[in-house]
């Protein structure tokens, strides 16, 4: 009997032996319910969390399936306490429900129900929950204040009792939207994602970058058939959504409005930026009326992992509207995954990156971590710097400029993105490479022109700041060189790799390089950044900068 690659420990961590022949299968199964915490060379550490188990439960997985996975791959017996905790945690989902007092009557009063009076007594006695409820109707039912549906769900999740929201949704003003599948068809996993959303009416769809999340959004719009508000990260994203909807649906230009810093249009389908929705004037949110100006039947949250904190508060008041969140990763660096779960909805569908790659819908990618030495003069500056300045000094090491040039020389004819965090570093890099630069200060029209120049091949190299982390369609980009980033951000790492994942001609493999300054906080942050992609099955080849010296062997 072959011992498995997992060691399940009583503190709810799971160790994965990377070199084991069954490691890839086990990693794939673990990703359904566990989060990767550390990913060094030989042993990866996962943690089984309550939120991970509840998301798995909402997506249709059972405690029996999860324990069967752990038992199948475990090297030693699963601790009985862990097994019991998994069963109890998953059993908590849905034992409380939010319903209508009169089912199928959307005007009827909201109530919190449970078939277990003891559970109901426990939660309703909590100081933060009691004010959200009215006087008890019977031992199994409490009325919910009309304004408190979202906040109640947040507080119940915080107390470990996630409620299943069965209260339904206002239909919104009907508006016919049809998919125009002329010359293309929705892929099977996109159909499954739309079906999973329809079954719940709200929730999150997780798909890799380049796998067609916008098409899933369009499919959800067609299935709901009502006026739709789409919230996106920036004006460039808004225009890409508009173009994709014009290409994929029956909608015309007259039916799609943009609501951003540049344009203020409200139409049956309106695409608004998070920035405009959260902008304040005289201390008040100036554009909140957009949420009520139409009887929306669906709200689409693009890149839901980037949802600004104020939008959670706004979303708490939108629980009667159908909601779909689209993202490549549920990872949030601010730890507010629980708010996504309670306010947007649980994970309804999740496709592993490597599964979509195996089907040929996203490009294979090779990831490299290239380590450089901090020059002696910069090493002294780093040594005496305050903690808040150390990462900037290490990440902006001057030697990265020379290394980036050598990497580009190894990829003749390929389209290369150079991505970074610090504007002065990017400006120097753009000048050294004689390449155009896009930052947050670049006007939207100029950005679109530069992106189009890159898409057409007129510009082979493009230097970009974090504005290109998300919702930018650059199908021909096959090489990315990351010279600095937002500290240890896992979701940013995933988004940046995602810029390369559109399928390439002749099945070419994309190359993702991260330039890391050895023995500094730059190296420490790089290890954390790579965790999510390691969970998805991407391995980083670690190399030294001198392997790119003139005359050395080709790396990729």
TrEMBL record:
It comes from Leucobacter chromiisoli. Pfam families: ERCC3_RAD25_C (PF16203), Helicase_C_3 (PF13625), ResIII (PF04851). Its EC number is 5.6.2.4. InterPro entries: ATP-dep_DNA_Helicase, ERCC3_RAD25_C, Helicase/UvrB_N, Helicase_ATP-bd, Helicase_C-like, P-loop_NTPase, XPB/Ssl2_N. Belongs to the helicase family. RAD25/XPB subfamily. The keyword Secreted does not apply. This is DNA 3'-5' helicase. Residues 398-548 form the Helicase C-terminal domain. SMART domains: DEXDc, HELICc. Residues 194-348 form the Helicase ATP-binding domain. GO terms for molecular function: 3'-5' DNA helicase activity; ATP binding; DNA binding; hydrolase activity. The keyword ATP-binding applies. Keywords: ATP-binding, Helicase, Hydrolase, Isomerase, Nucleotide-binding. It catalyses: ATP + H2O = ADP + phosphate + H(+); Couples ATP hydrolysis with the unwinding of duplex DNA by translocating in the 3'-5' direction. It is an enzyme of class 5 (isomerase).
